[in-house]
Amino acid sequence: MTFKPGIVVTGASGRMGQMLIRTVSDSDKAHLVGAVERAGHSWVGRDVGEAMGGAPLGVTVTDQPLEAFAQAQAVIDFTTPDATLEFAALAAQARAVHVIGTTGMTEAQIARLEPAARHAAIIRAGNMSLGVNLLVQLTKRVAAALDEDFDIEVIEAHHRHKVDAPSGTALMLGEAAAEGRGVALSEVADRGRDGITGARERGHIGFSAIRGGDIVGEHDVLFAADGERIVLRHVATDRAIFARGALKAALWGQGQGPGQYDMVDVLGL
Ligand SMILES: NC(=O)C1=CN([C@@H]2O[C@H](COP(=O)(O)OP(=O)(O)OC[C@H]3O[C@@H](n4cnc5c(N)ncnc54)[C@H](O)[C@@H]3O)[C@@H](O)[C@H]2O)C=CC1
Ligand SMILES: O=C(O)C1=N[C@H](C(=O)O)C[C@H](O)C1
């Protein structure tokens, strides 16, 4: 019989949490062993399937992450930066693979994952979909092929509830463009233009964010020169693409030693 890793989903009631619960419980390659929510949340103590408005799944939502992680081979975590830092330490203690989809982490917060990654595999990406990770590779190639006559702008659109900007995906695309050009993104990023900004600086990479309605996630990388434009675009219409990628990462992580990985490693791109 093939071994099926046990998976805990954190942020179980969230937009991604619910999608992940469905994806893991429908999978024949893994099984759901835990669902974590923050203390005081109305779902704590309830069966997660029933809380989602469906049939019981035999998993009670808990606010005790370490107890849940101790039963699991992987934790899939799409929550907040503070919660993710707490979960990284606990997943490392439980020697469980930690798949992190949470965005909006600062450089200082990302650096704080390092001690946990000495004990368990951490797989982190601002976007877990195959399409976006392919777009990242294409962006790097196009940026490397074009000179600074082409202005690079990353434009993203998301639903009205999103709390961080630029999106994690936009930052991945910006990093890829900067890498293709052989520059550090921190040196050339233009984030949040407003007022008399002055003319666009040659070689800079701009970011713009749109927020509204129920947009799942749309990303354009624009290369604009005099007389022509190239646009690389990804449009997400269903959060299932992120959940499928996260589950793939949790399964792939079973064969890995401690360390930090991303979806390029998982997908072999
Ligand atoms: N990497 C990727 O492919 C994707 C990443 N995301 C990111 O995932 C994150 C979550 O997105 P959504 O699901 O839309 O947000 P959401 O707000 O719907 O869900 C977050 C959930 O985390 C829970 N939570 C917060 N603190 C917690 C704690 N200490 N313990 C347990 N649960 C806690 C909240 O109660 C909530 O249910 C965001 O950072 C978003 O940008 C979203 C989609 C795809
Ligand atoms: O918050 C979201 O919804 C999404 N967040 C990720 C991001 O910040 O790029 C991925 C996806 O675009 C949806």
UniProtKB/TrEMBL annotation:
PROSITE patterns referenced in this protein's UniProt entry, alphabetically: DAPB
Residues that coordinate or bind NADP(+): 38
Domain of life: Bacteria
Pfam families from the UniProt entry: DapB_C, DapB_N
Every Dihydrodipicolinate reductase N-terminal domain range: 7-128
Residue span, Dihydrodipicolinate reductase C-terminal domain: 131-267
Binding-site positions, NAD(+): 11-16, 37, 101-103, 125-128
Family: Belongs to the DapB family.
Role according to the record: Catalyzes the conversion of 4-hydroxy-tetrahydrodipicolinate (HTPA) to tetrahydrodipicolinate.
Protein name: 4-hydroxy-tetrahydrodipicolinate reductase
Originating species: Pseudodonghicola flavimaris
Classification lineage: Bacteria, Pseudomonadati, Pseudomonadota, Alphaproteobacteria, Rhodobacterales
Gene transcribed to yield this protein: dapB
